[in-house]
Design brief:
By secondary structure, the protein is of the alpha/beta class. It has helices spanning 12-15, 26-29, 33-37, 62-67, 91-100, 107-110, 132-137, 172-180, 197-202, 219-225, 263-268, 272-285, 300-311; strands at residues 79-80, 83-84, 122-123, 147-152, 186-189, 204-209, 229-232, 237-238, 252-253. The two termini are 24 Å apart.
Length: 314
């Protein structure tokens, strides 16, 4: 862990399908699990190979948090990037899992447990793949921000899941692009421009962070690092280290589809001094959503250890 975040493997990933209880092991039902935990920031903390987990192991992922909480992992501490406390998942969610992720036929029946349980699980930030975001921007970005509200992004999801495109982002991204592209002071587009994306974030005051397939998206954290105030479209999403960070100081929240039609009026009502205060707060907390190398006090690794220590048995 001296590098901040590590991926740990044991023989548990390959051994259990041969055992008598093979039907209960995640890798026998969820073929994509190998890809997911092998890609940062997905972690696995096994206590011993093939053991029934108690509170020690953790298996996080975007999909691992909401589509991998099999009964055998129910009591594990999950480190998740999606602290989703929704009580129900829509039917298409399980259909997409079966179609896109290669789960077994009984997969949907085996993952009815909550995606995130606040008393034990920990929401963590993703590991961003662009070091310059926290090396150079440091939560400040540009002083001149001519764009009042910004969103540029995909509205259909992965090409592998096109049958479920209309369900992507719960329809929120689609509504934003279809209805607000001509709003004065807004830059809204479904056209991807990777070469200018971060520059545009850094030149914007408020950056819309609608969901993707999960209730969070990485743009929330990119916005923070570039000093743009994220607008989150969920009241049921637990953000990373929320017990240690007051996100009301650095974000704006609206109710998913319930507030969409009124979004321009809601954002127009936020006064300039309030936005300035939030940006100053972002500049003082940006380390909390980054994994510094080596780890530093107040960075994501430090806060993760604090959260885990709070969950340690007496």
């Amino acid at each position: 862990f001296s590098a901040g975040v590590s991926v740990l493997f044991t023989s548990c990933l390959s051994c259990c399908c041969r055992n008598s209880d093979s039907s209960s092991h995640v890798s026998c039902h969820y073929r994509a699990i190998y890809r997911l935990i092998a890609t940062p920031p997905y972690l696995m903390f096994p206590r011993r190979p093939c053991a029934a987990p108690s509170r020690a192991p953790s298996l996080p992922a975007q999909w691992g948090s909401c589509l991998g909480p099999f009964a055998e992992l129910h009591n594990s501490i999950h480190l998740v990037t999606s602290g989703d406390v929704s009580e129900e998942r829509p039917p298409w969610y399980y259909l997409r899992a079966k179609d896109h992720m290669g789960s077994s036929p009984d997969f949907a029946e085996r993952c009815r447990l909550p995606c995130y349980q606040h008393h034990k699980d920990v929401a963590i930030p993703p590991m961003l793949s662009v070091p310059a975001l926290f090396r150079d921007s440091r939560g400040v970005g540009n002083a001149d921000r001519p764009v009042r509200v910004y969103f540029r992004g995909n509205t259909a999801g992965s090409h592998k899941a096109m049958p479920f495109a209309r369900n992507y982002s719960m329809g929120i991204r689609q509504y934003i692009v279809d209805n607000f592209s001509e709003e004065r002071g807004w830059l809204v587009s479904r056209e991807n421009r990777p070469e200018s994306y971060h520059k545009e974030l850094a030149s914007s005051q408020m950056c819309l962070a609608p969901p993707g397939w999960e209730q969070w998206s990485v743009r929330l954290f990119e916005s923070l690092l570039l000093g743009c105030i994220p607008v989150i479209f969920s009241l049921s999403l637990v953000l990373p280290f929320q017990s240690l960070i007051d996100y009301s100081n650095v974000t704006l929240r609206v109710r998913d589809s319930a507030d969409l039609a009124a979004l321009p009026a809601l954002l127009a009502s936020v006064p300039g001094p309030a936005l300035d205060l939030k940006r100053r707060s972002i500049a003082s907390m940006w380390r909390a959503v980054t994994y510094q190398r080596p780890p530093e006090e107040g960075d994501a690794f430090d806060l993760l250890l604090r959260e885990l220590s709070a969950r340690a048995p007496p």
